[in-house]
Every structure is written in structure tokens, then in C-alpha cells.
Amino acid sequence: MKSKKTKPTKTPSKLKAKNDEAFEHLLVTQFEALRREIDAFIARSQKSRKVIGKELPFKTPKQGRNIPWKAGIAALFLIGVSTPLLLQLNKDREEAKIVRASERVQSPEKGSILQENPSVTESEGTSKTKKSVRAKARKKIRDSVTSKAVASKNQSAKKSLEASASKQDEQSGIKPRARSPFPEPAAAPKETPASEKAAEGSSQISPRSLDLKDATAKFKRRKNASEERVEMESLWKEFEKNPQVFFQNKKRSARLEQLLKEYDKGKTGRMKKFRVQKESRVDR
Amino acid sequence: MFLRLLTLAASALDATSAFMERLLPFRDRLYRLALAQLRNTSDAEDAVQDTLIKAGKSAPIFRNESSEYTWVVRILINQCHDMQRSRERRQKREVSDSITGSAADTVADFRKRPEEYVELSDISKHLMNAVDELSTTHRPLILMRYFEQMSYEEIAQSLEIHLGTVKSRMNQAKTLLRAALERRGIGEDVL
User: Fold this and answer.
1) pLDDT in tens, B75-119
2) Which residues of B are less than 8 Å from A38 in CB distance?
3) Do A41 and B118 lie within an 8 Å CB cutoff?
4) 0.90 cut: is pTM over it?
5) DSSP letter (8 states) at residue B187
6) Are B33 and B73 in contact, with CB atoms under 8 Å apart?
């Protein structure tokens, strides 16, 4: 048998290198073909579905437009959170101040103890007492507010009354007093020694008008005095007509004597005449 | 404190949105890669979306050592691998359900629509099946190098490994792929 002469085979390393190159080439070409196939498929599917972009609903954020929005939302959120907190804080502080002040006013001794050992007093203080103190403080504030409101109401009522009075004056023909734009200067007080003394004695300012009760009493007194004077005059006339007859009625004579004492006071000489007549009658 | 947290969150949101905006031009390329691996349009769309979301979330970690695209490609390849695994698991469950005769018949699988599947040539199908057989360490290397035509340096940056490691792993990947292709009767004349 003839042995076949074979060609010298390539060394395994060279073969391997050649194979590697071929495989590399195969991979490159096959993957390129694969890419082309996929691109063709995408193009086809794009035609049927129009756009791939619509398949991927991924919204692109627009940076420039978003920034002010975000800042605005963040600012609103911060304001919304911080304002009620701050308001609450302020309220609590005010309440604490009021409570402290009221505690000091009510019990200064206790206040001193509080300063010395606040933890002890806090533990001792029940919730009821705290509540009552707070309620009192609130009531005080409310009272002050209501008194202010009443004062303002009174002022407004006074003003309206004045306005109505001036209107009536205008209607009746009386000229309203012209008011100067400048405030009226206060009348200079007469510097008399008596007034000075009075001012020194009493620091309180005397009111311009009397109270209603005092005024009525004064009015009654004046009225009685005038009536009594009239009575005195009539009795005096009777006395002058006939003193002997007049002295017979003791009640009338006594009344005339009393009235003369009170109102005549020796100014007109009636009292003197009356006494002389009386004495002469006694002597008889 | 609260303001600081808010500003940090806002800045993170800004960074994420900016990063995602930079990635948007690569969306079509990413979709193509996902389609090559998954061979299903809806799965590929899901994979791309999930990848972009993941990339956006981890934008603050991105160190600018590699380009955004190479970084996202790595995320996408891993995402596709996860999806493939879950799909396989689902298919296995369906098969077992059909054997036992449970509720698998009543539940419709909308992913089985034929128009969603990519029509590839036989060679391409075998090639991708062979690639699928590769492990998670070798598969990204082959796809990056031959499908995405990335350089060794870019692959090294993307996978955060040394260039030498990339080369050695590439050789291993090629050997494994060649064996897988040989089993399918492809490239016998070349090899």
C-alpha cells in the first residue's frame, strides 16, 4: 500500500489563530445581520404603530420651566407649615406671661417660692389651679377689652348727639359757634392763695357738674326757702296790723320768730321790733 | 433641618431629571439591544423603561468615569437577564399548571401575541440562543463588544473591571459561545 503523502499540517497554534480570526469575523458579520434584522423589524413596527415614542410614555421633564414651580411649591409648603407653628408658639408665650404675672399679683410670697424652687411648685400645683389662673387671666383681658369697647361706644353716641343738636340749631336759625381749627387754650387759673391752698390740699380735680341727687336736693331747698319767705312776709303783715292779737296765737308767733331768725338775721330790724313787742307783752 | 432636607430632595430630583434627559437620545439604541435579547416588543419596552428609571434613581452614584450610555447598557443587560429569568419561571409554572389542569387555561396571557415577537433568521435566532446560554459575567461582554460595538476600554469602564480582566473574560466568552454555536451546527465550516 502506498502511503498517502499528506501535506504538512499547520501547527495547532496557527490553526487556532486562524480559527479565532474566522470566528471573530463570523461573530461580527452575524451580529451585524442581527442588528439589521432588528432595525428592519423596528421600522416595520413603527410604520404599523407610527411612533415608538408613543409606546414609551416617558415624559421629559423641562428643566427651565420646572425650577420656579418647584421653588414656589416648596415656599408655599414651608409657609403653610411654619405659620401655624409660629402663631401657636406666640400664643403659648403670651399665655405663659399672663399666667406668671397673675401668679405674682395673687401671691407674691408664693412667687418667691416659685423662684427658689420652681420644680417643686410645679409638681405641687394641680391642673385645676393652673386652669383657674388661666381662666382668671383671660377674664381680665376680656373685661379690659369690653370696657374699652363701651368707652368708645359712649364717645360715638356723644358725638352723634352733638351733631344732631347743631343741626337743630341751624334749622332754628341760630348760628353754630364757629370752631377754630386749633385747640382752645386752657384758661389760666387765677393764682389766689386760697385756690393754691385748695390745690395743695386736694390733689383730686373737682368735677365741673354736680351729681343729679345733689342738684335735686339743692333745688328743693331753694324752693322751700322761697315758700318760707312768702310765709314769713304774710305773718309779718299780720303782726304789723295788730301785734296784740298776733301774740295770742302762740304757734304763729313762734313760727314767725323762727322764720325771722332764719331769713332776716337782723338785716331789716324786724327781729328787733318783734322782740321788743314780745318783751313788752310779757311785762304786761 | 427640614429646609435642608427639602433642598436636598429638590437637588436630587433635578439631578435625576437632568440625567434622564441626557439618556433620552439613547432610548432607541437601548430598545434595539433589549429587543435583541428579549425578542418581544412589550418586554423590551418594559426593560427600557425600568432601566431608565433605575438609572435615574442611581444618578447621584454615577461617577462620570464612563459615558452615560455604557453605564446604562450594563443596567439594561442585567435588567433583560432578570426579565428572561422571570419569564422562564413563568413558563415553567404555566407548563406545570397545564399538566395539573389548574387555572392556567382561564387566565389569558396577553404577551403571547404573535405581532410582538421579533421575526429573526434562523442563524440570528441560534446566535441569540447561544448568547442566552452564557453566564451573567460573559454575556454582557459579547453583547457590548459585538452588538453595541464598544471598545475594550469602554467595556472595562462600564463593568468597572480592569482591561486585562475584560480581555481574558472575552476569550472565555468566545470559547463558550463557539461551543454553543457548534452544538447548533453553526460555523462548522469556519471552525
Assistant:
1) 898 898 898 888 888 878 877 777 766 554 544 454 456 667 788
2) 32, 35-36, 118, 120
3) yes
4) no
5) S
6) yes
